[in-house]
């Protein structure tokens, strides 16, 4: 199954077209755009929108071009062609978001449709995408108040669990990072050690 980027113009091979009697390759068919039916997401079939005809390449395999209208819907993309004297041809493709195809390095013609690997055997583009995704998650608020993002919450938990603390038996308690260089929380305490107010300081990148 080949991946096709959404809303793109792409040329793919379909076939093989074989003779309906002896199954030999059909190399001289005239296949108009109206002969090439497509189904999106297992829906009703219709002729492809792009107007060019198919071009024979080899052994009954034909190149077919689809345009952005043809490839505009994410999901299953089935191509069905039945020509006189030839067996039915059905090829299955999958339309995915164009950004995903670019990230994976599988845009048409790029490295033969395979992901590009760098010198460290990492899939090109994936590392930066994962890093950006993690940054977004860490920056998301997990409480309806300032400074409580996931990144900050992790820093506060570390300060509470293994950080340097002071004044916890007085009226003002302070929690710092494990090396004591960064203040994470300053709490106002009552006579029983309960926190009545807390000022948080989020970590900086």
Keywords:
alpha+beta, Immunoglobulin-like, 3 domains, four-stranded antiparallel β-sheet
Describe this structure in words.
The protein has 205 residues and is of the alpha+beta class. It is 17% helix and 30% strand. The protein contains 3 helices and 12 strands. The chain has helices at residues 98-104, 126-139, 150-162, and strands spanning 2-5, 10-14, 37-40, 45-47, 55-58, 61-66, 75-81, 89-96, 165-166, 172-176, 183-189, 195-200. A 5-stranded mixed β-sheet has the order 1-8-7-3-4. A 4-stranded antiparallel β-sheet has the order 9-10-11-12, with helices on one face. The chain is rod-shaped, with a radius of gyration of 30 Å. The model has no long low-confidence stretch (mean pLDDT 85).
Q: What share of residues is helical?
A: 10-25%
Rg calculated over all Cα atoms: 30 Å
Mean pLDDT: 85
The parts where pLDDT drops under 50 for at least 5 residues are none
Count the domains.
Answer: 3
Q: How much strand content do the residues show?
A: 25-35%
CATH topology of the largest domain: Immunoglobulin-like
Number of strands: 12
The first-level CATH class of the largest domain is given as Mainly Beta
CATH architectural type of the largest domain: Sandwich
Give the SSE order as H and E letters.
EEEEEEEEHHHEEEE
CATH superfamily of the largest domain: Macroglobulin (MG2) domain
Q: Tally the helices: what do you get?
A: 3
Q: Sum up the overall morphology in one term.
A: rod-shaped
End-to-end distance, in Å? 43 Å
Alpha-beta classification: alpha+beta
Spatial strand arrangement across the major sheet:
1-8-7-3-4
Biggest sheet record: 5 strands, mixed
